Amino acid sequence: MPETVFTVSAVGAGQRLDKALGAVFPDMGIRGCRRFWERGQVLVNGRARPRGWSVAAGDVVTVRLPDAADAGDAAARERGSERPRVLAERGDWVFLYKPAGLHSAALAGSGARSLEDMLPRLCGCPTGTPVLLNRLDQGTSGVVVASRTTDGALLWRRGEDAGQCEKRYLAVLEGRLEMPLVMSRALNTARRATTVVLADEGEPLRHTRLTPLGVLEGGDARRVFPDAAGNAALTLAGCLIRKGARHQIRAHAAHAGYPLAGDERYGARRKGAFLLHHGALRLGGAAPAPICEPVWLERLPEALRAAARAWLNTGE
Known about the structure:
By secondary structure, the protein is of the alpha+beta class. The chain folds into two domains: 3-66, Structural Genomics Hypothetical 15.5 Kd Protein In mrcA-pckA Intergenic Region, Chain A, CATH 3.10.290; 71-312, Pseudouridine synthase (2-Layer Sandwich), CATH 3.30.2350. It is 22% helix and 27% strand. It has nine helices and 15 strands. It has helices spanning 17-24, 29-33, 68-71, 74-78, 115-122, 150-161, 218-224, 248-255, 302-312, and strands at residues 3-7, 42-44, 47-48, 60-64, 85-90, 93-98, 131-132, 141-147, 165-174, 181-183, 185-188, 196-201, 208-216, 234-241, 276-283. It is globular and about 55 Å long. The termini are far apart.
């Protein structure tokens, strides 16, 4: 089991232990970090301490990290065989699958595993440094692309800046979304932990389109999201973006009144890991990456599975 070890600075002295961990694992937040205590994985100076423990400057904190297949949403835990892998190669570009629970990029000062750390091996560049071209939140699964060369990276960035990129996601939202929505508000990503939706109009490349694909209620809702309560509806939605910003879909969906189920950071009522999956990635006339389905797709009713697959396979 990999470990992350850090020393509490003078700035962090006096904080609760769970808050100190929240600063080290910003994608998980304090609530997410509390799950470490369920497995006795947090030590201070070699001794297990409760999450309310007050840390002091110089304290050495050790976090024993779960494997990537165990750290994500419930669907990833069901499928312990889920591992990062190559989906396809298109010239300099390598399309990969990132499971939920794994960081896309390496975190400075952290020993947590990331897809970026694995790129040389996965991309077949033992002596080179492949360039990561998009990132997904730790809790988000799906397609990530890397380039073996700087020329390939530049070509991708130019296409993305020209609006040629199309990124299709599947998400499970709280509430009943009846009509497609386009969220065009600008985003403030300066706060690392939470993205703020602003009143101003954002640039078109950072708009988010939400398309309802079907509604889940009762037993169907609980099969997809076990913490779904009562008769409250969930919506399976297709989410389309061009050039993503940090937490773009999560922040825009919540601002529209339909947060991702389980996404407590953005106001969801239900507890649990949110379900967000990047399933299709295209750049202009280039050959697209293969469609990548989420591991939780099989928990959907047959009609919604068909709707999800049709949406992922639809290009504009």
